[in-house]
Amino acid sequence: MGTFLPGLELNRQFYAEVVRPLLDRHAPDLPYAAARVGDGSDVLGFDTEMSTDHNWGPMLALFLQAEDHHLAEDIRRLLADSLPATFRGYPIFFAQSDGPFPVEHWVHPTTVSAFVEETLGFALEQRLTAADWLSFPMQRLLDVTAGAVYHDGTEELTALRQRLAFYPSDVWRYLLAAGWQRIGQAEHLLPRAGIVGDELGSALIGSRLVRDVMTLCFLMERRYAPYPKWFGTAFARLACAPNLTPLLWQAQMAPAWPERNEALVAASEYLVRMHNALGITAPLPERATPFHGRPFTVIHGESFVPIIQESVTDPAVLALFSRRPLGGIDLISDNIDLLVDPGYRLAVRALYEQP
Q1: pTM of the full predicted structure?
Q2: Helix (H, G, I), strand (E, B), or coil: what is residue 289?
């Protein structure tokens, strides 16, 4: 197969050289979109040669208009009968690896509304509320907004990706507030555990705080954070990464709590400067101070919540501040099944509805 070709480029060529000519010949008047979206490391642009061992290869979603969805099975059969066996040395027909699935091609006709329902558990025609946004896992939002669109003859897919490109302004502020709240809840626990000799416990708290700092960085740079496998890889591409990575790595690797806390305090102070550079609130204090006179300093992340709240104008988002901000589903749980199964979304959404 020669030099590895990343999935997004492989599928661009696959569409241009194989799929599009077939559709032009057999359905020249059919409006549709062709894209590589959904799950998969290649959608995020992080696939490597190792990725090719399962569920990887020539694959596309074809988005039909709702009135043409009855043609989906005919198109699927047309492709099954007409596609070559391989493209660029990769098999076009293969079985999904995680179950007893048939060998088939991976060019799937669907509609934008069906894709949204399957990915986010959301009906496309509904108005998006703050509770909806907060119940969408960031990785699932990436499933829709990352990847590549190779053709859009209906503009429905492009409109969807623009609609979900990032959080509305006040939902974003709420998530920022919740991120600072999490830091404030745990930052004083790290040194306290260390002082009594529990270095393992202190290190575990430190790891949580490292992740919380990184999550806030994604939000401040207006990027969705991917799932754990690619969380650090995506973080490394943020503008703040060159300055923060040495501090966060020091916090992770420190053998004792004083060095661990020192690194996290420095990272938190840098994070405050990032927030202040956004210009969305009154300036937050950029220096850590002692915690109730104890022999360590913290940034007091929870104190930033009311300052951020003052910048919010949406009544629905303001109502969420009547209780301590939970943040989105990604801050509430890292349970994989909860995050990937849209069937849980309505139960998650209920957390943000007023009693």
Answers
A1: 0.95
A2: strand
